[in-house]
Design brief:
It is a single chain. The chain is α/β, with parallel strands linked by helices. The protein is built from 17 helices and 13 strands. It has a 6-stranded mixed β-sheet with strand order 4-5-13-10-11-12, with helices on both faces. It has a 4-stranded parallel β-sheet with strand order 8-7-6-9. It has a 3-stranded antiparallel β-sheet with strand order 2-1-3. A hairpin with a 7-residue loop joins strand 1 and strand 2. The longest helix has 19 residues. The structure holds pyridoxal-5'-phosphate and zinc ion. Pyridoxal-5'-phosphate binds next to helix 11.
């Protein structure tokens, strides 16, 4: 049977370029090595020409995306590159470095929703990805562009990033796949063992620095500013371009319906900016007709955006981030704060925070209903619970929680929870193994005792 394949309008010339977020005049091509506006020093963003995108109708785009999604016509089966015209049209297919990222499942959190009084709660499992976090979505774009620039003769001997663990894992994997040297700067003893091993395994030059993430960020900015090593942090807006496909993919998975509320954890605030950018571009191109509400969730121990939100975003002051179980968002001076505030203002946005106890309990409650949450997803879940309790969400609202990493990267956090070793956390859902002698009656008694408490735990709370 012949399959009718739609293609984008062949006459369209897709164009995207860097522009200053403050609107300083002057554009820069995406294959220029530039991270900040040369006039005011602020962040750049990628802007797309809408005219060529509009030469193909919204319905045709949807059909094109659906035909490409999760198929093998390389590289368009990737959740990112299937939307190439809206992401990074400049990179040539032969330079694309892809692990077929994206295409992560949406988990209908039926049980958790029932407990919390929500009928339509979904978790976007961005951690079900090549390196176990959403960072793959942005890194595929950035490393592909580096490969292209090197093929054009640009002298870029290596790529580098500061990281709270997941960016370095993604950079190391994609650089290894491309055959490009990677350098990662990690705050010593502040990332999980699993996250530390990833860049080691991929052969990245791994520096454990005696500081926090913000300290690593300062050093990598200086190194990449003075040398021709390419900066892979999310202040490089190529990353944001890939990550913004989360919004496209969400809508696609809901047959192009826009959810009512999206809750997303935020640290450096690149991802919440990307989420918003994706929706704005889809709206401009006519793919969606409205915008969702966005709630950004921060750990109370690293909450500069939350504090700014309480002041109506009138001022923003960096903080010194205190240790948090949500180690990937232990950031006090987020690079993308201006972009994030701009997005939240356009999306009827709010910021909520979660204490260590709240994030650990929410992650565990989610696990008890079949998820396997990282602590950052725990922050988002705890924030959602608070918003629901305040009555700001209707029972029938479609709510999506962005899960940012795979729980298996945070085994230590989970095992400490279940052995009740987390300081200041009651560990309400702790489920340590029952140690029983090898004796039938003793095993039977222990088993049926446990079954009774288990049934009480499962009793649905509405
Ligand atoms: C990077 C990361 C975040 C935060 O994303 P930002 O863009 O820095 O706000 C949240 N969770 C996980 C697991 C991450 O790796
Ligand atoms: Zn500027």
């Amino acid at each position: 049977m012949a399959v009718h394949m739609k293609h984008p309008n062949p006459n369209a010339r897709y164009r995207a370029r860097f522009r200053c977020i403050n609107g300083c005049p002057g554009d820069h091509p995406l294959n220029e090595v530039i991270y900040a506006c040369p006039k005011c020093g602020d962040l750049l963003e990628v802007v797309h020409d809408l005219e060529p995108l509009r030469m193909t109708s919204p319905d045709e785009w949807k059909e094109i995306f659906d035909n490409r999604f999760m198929r093998t016509a390389w590289p368009y089966g990737s959740g990112v590159w299937g939307k190439k015209e809206f992401v990074c049209p400049d990179v040539r297919d032969e330079n694309i470095v892809s692990t077929c990222e994206g295409g992560s499942n949406l988990f209908w959190a039926e049980q958790l929703g029932f407990r919390w009084g929500l009928e339509d709660l979904w978790v976007k499992q961005c951690g079900n990805s090549h390196t176990g976090s959403f960072k793959d979505l942005g890194m595929t774009v950035l490393v592909s562009m580096v490969k292209q620039m090197r093929s054009e003769g640009k002298d870029i001997p290596a790529v580098a990033c500061a990281s709270t663990g997941d960016t370095s894992a993604a950079l190391a994997a994609y650089s290894a796949a491309a055959g490009i040297p990677a350098i990662v700067f990690l705050p010593k003893n502040k990332v999980s063992r699993a996250q530390l091993v990833q860049p080691l395994a991929h052969g990245a030059i791994t520096l454990a620095i005696d500081t926090d993430f913000d300290g690593c960020m300062r050093i990598v900015r200086e190194i990449t500013g003075r040398h021709n090593i390419y900066l892979a942090n999310s202040m490089n807006s190529l990353r944001v371009e890939g990550q913004k496909t989360i919004s496209f993919e969400l809508c696609q998975q809901f047959d192009w319906q826009v959810p009512d509320l999206i809750v997303i954890p935020g640290g450096n605030l690149g991802n919440v900016s990307a989420l918003g950018q994706g929706f704005l571009l889809m709206k401009d191109a006519g793919l969606v007709g409205r915008l969702p509400r966005i709630v950004c969730a921060q750990a109370e121990n690293a909450n500069p955006l939350y504090l700014s939100y309480l002041r109506g975003f009138e001022t923003f002051d960096p903080v010194t981030a205190r240790p948090t179980l949500a180690s990937a968002i232990q950031i006090g001076n987020p690079v993308s704060v201006k972009k994030a505030i701009r997005v939240l203002k356009q999306f009827d946005g709010a910021v909520e925070q979660a204490s260590e106890e709240e994030l650990a309990e929410a992650a565990a409650e989610g696990d008890l209903t079949g998820l396997y949450n990282c602590p950052h997803t725990g922050v988002a879940l705890a924030a959602l619970k608070k918003v629901v309790r305040r009555g700001e969400v209707k029972r029938s609202d479609r709510v999506v929680v962005i899960s940012t990493a795979h729980g298996l990267k945070f085994t230590d956090f989970k095992s400490r929870y279940h052995f009740s070793e987390l300081e200041g956390v009651e560990c309400h859902f702790a489920n340590p193994p029952l140690e029983v002698p090898a004796n039938y009656e003793k095993v039977r008694d222990a088993l049926f005792r446990a079954l009774e408490t288990r049934n009480a735990q499962f009793a649905r709370q509405i």
